[in-house]
UniProtKB/TrEMBL annotation:
Pfam families found in the cross-reference section: DUF2249
Domain DUF2249: 6-71
Family annotation (InterPro entries): DUF2249, TusA-like_sf
Protein name: Uncharacterized protein (DUF2249 family)
Domain of life: Bacteria
Length: 71
């Protein structure tokens, strides 16, 4: 299992979602991706559900969001 991370802060939609999905496409089953976004990625969640990925979201003290996605 490999661990990856993406800092999507400062990007305007839909760039964070595009970058996240592209990285997930490159990963192997069981790999984990941690992303940091300025906003909660509401449009990303249905895509993750459709693809069968699990994820956990937490809000960080600065108001941004960290999402850990397991492929």
């Amino acid at each position: 299992m490999a661990e990856y991370s993406l800092n999507n802060r400062g990007l305007t939609p839909p760039q964070p979602m595009i970058r996240t999905l592209q990285k997930l496409d490159e990963m192997e089953k069981g790999d984990r991706l941690t992303i940091n976004n300025d906003r909660q990625p509401m449009f990303l969640y249905p895509e993750l559900d459709e693809r069968g990925y699990s994820y956990e979201t937490s809000q960080l003290p600065d108001g941004s969001f960290q999402i850990i996605i397991t492929k």
